[in-house]
Amino acid sequence: MENKNxxxxxxxxxxxxxxxxxxxxxxxxxxxxxxxxxxxxxxMTAEDLAPVFCEELIKQELDNDTRYYPIPQEIRDxxxxxxxxxxxxxxxxxxxxxxxxxIYYKFEGNNTSxxxxxxxxxxxxxxxxxxxxxxxxxxxxxGQWGTALSMACxxxxxxCKVYMVKIxxxxxxxxxxxxxxxxxxxxxxxSNTTEVGKKILAEHPxxxxxxxxxxxxxxxxxxxxxGYRYVLGSVLxxxxxxxxxIGVETKIxxxxxxxxPDIIIGCAGGxxxxxxxxxxxxGEKLRGEKDYRIIAVEPASCPSFTxxxxxxxxxxxxxxxxxxxxxxxxxxxxxxPNHAGGLRYxxxxxxxxxxxxxxxxxAVSVTQTSVFEAAEQFARVEGILPAPESSHxxxxxxxxxxxxxxxxxxxxxxxGLTGTGYFDLVAYEKFNNGEMSDYIPTDEELAKYRAxxxxxx
Length: 457
Ligand SMILES: *Cc1c(COP(=O)(O)O)cnc(C)c1O
What we know:
Layout: E1 20-22, H1 46-49, H2 55-62, E2 68-70, H3 73-79, E3 87-89, H4 91-97, E4 102-107, H5 118-130, E5 135-140, H6 144-156, E6 159-165, H7 166-171, H8 173-181, E7 185-189, H9 195-203, H10 211-224, E8 228-230, H11 237-256, E9 263-267, H12 272-286, E10 293-299, H13 304-307, E11 309-314, E12 323-328, H14 350-357, E13 362-366, H15 368-382, H16 388-407, E14 412-417, H17 425-432, H18 443-450
Parallel strand pairs: 4-14, 5-6, 5-8, 6-7, 9-10, 9-14, 10-13
Antiparallel strand pairs: 1-2, 3-4, 11-12
The structure holds pyridoxal-5'-phosphate.
């Protein structure tokens, strides 16, 4: 199974769904920087990570060498409920734009959680169950990850404790109720249920909460309750590994029809959908077999790749997690309150950070009004109401298709349509009312957050 020349086809089972995850780290000459112990500044070992994460997931996290991971049968059985996900040619959008470009999108919104996050949630819940754990803890911002995880936990009969960023808890009651319907307990963060939550509340009374703060709380609850571990929906190497199912499946379908993409586009929050979508293509690029333009799209209000620095940073506000080397804006960066489009994490996947630093992929940032314009344009011709996060990728796919219109080039564009926007209608309402505004942080503001990066030599 380690023969890199074996085509993906042989790993297929019924329904054209891959039965292997592909670990792009195996093909990276320079590996992503390891997670680092904040106290000793040494790479985190499996032992260090054991109180926080599930055993099998730690192995995956630290494994830079195994190219293919067989997807366990129990996970494949679950995947079959909604996979393979559709790879769609956007004929109507092409026609509307009048472009000679061919546009394809891989649609991951076709499950109840409404996004790609279920691909990793089910894997993480499976390994927790296999280890005999009682339950898992996590954080959620807008709620997609918490929803996906609560579905996965109910499937494997695990307890699921979700710390939800307080402002979302209050403003997005619907996603909260989906989680509770699937049996999860949902606590607004920061809360009085953890030491770190109490500390943050004492320092910042009336805070709206943030992802970084909710992570700190969820980690504390996991390490202080026997039989619990913490799980994370993005950023980590293991999450990119699980999400490679998106990319391998896309490649299988494109290969079947003899289609070679020129440009592959995805939105980037913590980097998991993009990392998953591009992985087999990036593998070919790393091995020198093919070349593709790969573009990460991020919000102008949270520009980790385009305006961040590549450095070791905390993954959370409470500084309870290991340090990760990544493109980051600083762990206490929080996008401006008018930002409605998700993708608000301060850092970025260490795998993608390394690839970006080596010039293997590009990144662009886009303003949220231009993102919602693209979302509307797409919804009106392609029928799907896209998530604001996904619409970042739509924006740049449209922009690239319009460039082809000018030059007459018939490029093939593939983008990741990560989810649906039915729970984001308050943001759509703002856009429809003409009340949406853009906020781009100034260099001075970004410098202020950057100054708080941990000093490591
Ligand atoms: C969470 C989410 C994202 C961003 O997360 P990544 O880890 O960067 O993929 C994008 N789209 C949707 C629909 C999401 O729920």
